[in-house]
Amino acid sequence: MTNCPKSETTGKRVERITLESLLRSEFHSSIGSGQWFYCPDPKCPVAYFDAEGHTLDKSALSVRVGVKENSPPRPICYCFDHSIEEIQEEVAATGTSKVPDSITEKCRQGLHECEFKNPQGSCCLGNVRAVMKEAQASGSCSAATSEQDCCAVPVEVPPVTSGGRSVGLLAAVGAGISAVLSSACCWLPLLLLAFGASAAGVSGFFERYRPLFLGVSAVLLAAGFYLVYLREPACEPDADCSVPNARLTRINKVMLWVAAVFVATFALFPNYVGALLGTDHLGDVTSTDTSYDMEFAVEGMTCEACAVILRSKLTEVPGVSAAEVFYSSGRARLRFESLESKPAADAITKAVADSGYEAILP
User: Fold this and answer.
1) Who has greater pLDDT, 195 or 136?
2) For residue 350, is it within any domain?
3) Which pLDDT score, from 0 to 100, does residue 152 have?
4) Which of 26, 110, 286, 305 has an alpha carbon 20 to 30 Å from 216's alpha carbon atom?
């Protein structure tokens, strides 16, 4: 149920923190664990109702629900202490009110606490502007019922308010995923081999699409920065969405930069993976009068990680005392203790094939 049981008015979802902050202590046990809604009907005494039809009247709150009251003072802005009467009197004296601009500026500074102070659990700016416009039009003292949001969390503001920044973060996430895929030609074979699975053909597949993934990452990341930093929301000058959520904006910017570092880390992974994993050199193994070196070509390697994978596999071949693999030249070099201990060509070819590459023996 999302309609008030008494007025049939569509309710507005409120968080538990709002009820806990504003209900009198003797009513806290009535909250339970279900979802509650705020009834915006000025003529309805119900302040909150839940999906099962339970209600809490305005008298259960520790503050007056201004839009549901008939006698002054009727609070309209709970964070900065403005009343309906104050706005009406200012309009009567000057033809307008400075209260909306004052609230807007304080919202930009992140000074609002709507979830804790306002019975509707969200910003009052839409209500305040409605009161001002009604006073300008008729001079009446009726309360506004508009509940547009300026300070609340993104899911409660009009889509045009946070849409650009939300899309910006989605673009950054997409860029991160593309960057991970662009480096899969290096890290995925390592992962597969760590679990004993075959990595044959994996590197080549992702290497073919690496330029595409990198291009998508760059475009999405650029779009994210544009939407978060440069694009202004499509919003009328006096609309609620003209007031950005300062706290949300800061979080979005931090997350975007984190995404940028993440993208750079994975996009450049093939360039530094060799330094991370290290390489062995035949020079580290003592050469003897009977030792024997063998060099051959390797096809299919796509980054330094391939060389590390292959080197590890070759050192497991019986008779091989050391191995060295060069990604840049596409060659491998083995050292045997003697010609007698040299393994069969099939053993070497199989070790290379098991790593996902092809050996071209002399």
Assistant:
1) 136
2) yes
3) 38
4) 305
Q: Are 72 and 66 in contact (CB under 8 A)?
A: no
Which of the residue ranges 97-111, 186-200, 258-272 would you say has the lowest mean pLDDT?
186-200
Q: Rg (Cα) of the chain, in Å, rounded? A: 34
pLDDT in tens, 159-211: 334 445 566 778 878 888 888 887 777 777 777 767 766 655 666 677 778 88
CA geometry: angle at 153 spanning 150 and 159, to 5°? Answer: 70
Strands 36-38 and 320-326: unpaired
Residues 101, 182: one domain?
A: no
Same domain, 128 and 219: no
The answer to whether the pTM exceeds 0.70 is no
Instruction: Kindly report the backbone phi and psi dihedral angles of residue 31, in degrees, each rounded to the nearest multiple of 5, phi listed first.
Output: -65, -45
Does residue 92 contact residue 109 with C-beta atoms inside 8 Å? no
> If DSSP codes are grouped into helix, strand and coil, which group holds residue 191?
helix
Question: Which H, E and C letters describe 279-319, residue by residue?
Answer: CCCHHHCCCCCCCEEEEEEEECCCCHHHHHHHHHHHCCCCC
For residues 247 and 162, membership in a common domain is answered with yes
Coil/strand/helix, residue 171: helix
Residue with tokens 């009009």: 158
Instruction: Give CA–CA dist 164/169, Å, rounded.
Output: 9
CA contacts within 13 A on the Cβ side of 194: 8
Of residues 174 and 18, more confidently modeled:
18
Rounded Cα distance between 152 and 155, Å, is 8
For the chain, the domain total comes to: 4
Residues 162 and 240 in one domain: yes
Q: Which residue has the higher pLDDT, 76 or 162?
A: 76
Please check whether residues 182 and 202 belong to one and the same domain: yes
Domain with 13, as residue range(s), is 1-62
